[in-house]
Structures are given as structure tokens and as C-alpha cells.
Q: What sequence folds into this?
């Protein structure tokens, strides 16, 4: 959720923020966990732990970036009418 919220506040439209949040936060770690085992010979539990650690680091980093953006009010932008 934090990845999607940060993406939507950075000016992306809703669908692009939603797809990027799913891709970065869910699909990439799960594909990494599924493919890391057979390709690199890593045990299944270690691959799941690695994917979970990636998700945790991603969530914490997005939390800090979102907190900074909210504190600086960097997401507030003046809407100008297009010609």
C-alpha cells in the first residue's frame, strides 16, 4: 500500500501507480522467490526470506520517502488549465 500511495502522490495517474505498486511490491519479489531456488540452487525457505526482506526494505524506504514528501508538502501542486 505504501508503494502505491507514494506513486500516486508523485504525480502518476491511478492505474500506472496501481500497476507499478503491484509490480514492484508483489510480482518482482514473488517471481524472485520462485525462480531463485531452481536457478541458483538456493533453498526454498531462503528464497522466501529474501523476498520478504526485499518487501520489508521497500516498505520502510517508501514510508520514509512518503513521510518526507508529506512534511515538505511536495505532493501539492497547482493545477493549471490546459489550453
A:
Amino acid at each position: 500500500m505504501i508503494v502505491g500511495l507514494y506513486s500516486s502522490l508523485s504525480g502518476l495517474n491511478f492505474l500506472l501507480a496501481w500497476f507499478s505498486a503491484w509490480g514492484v511490491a508483489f510480482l518482482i519479489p514473488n517471481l524472485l522467490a520462485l525462480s531463485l531456488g531452481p536457478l541458483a540452487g538456493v533453498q526454498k525457505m531462503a528464497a522466501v526470506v529474501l523476498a520478504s526482506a526485499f518487501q520489508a526494505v521497500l516498505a520502510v524506504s517508501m514510508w520514509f520517502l512518503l513521510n518526507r514528501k508529506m512534511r515538505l508538502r511536495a505532493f501539492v501542486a497547482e493545477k493549471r488549465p490546459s489550453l
Q: What stands out?
A: The CA atoms of residues 9 and 76 lie 9 Å apart. The chain is about 75% helix and 0% strand. Residues 2-72 form one domain. The helical segments are 2-9, 14-40, 44-72.
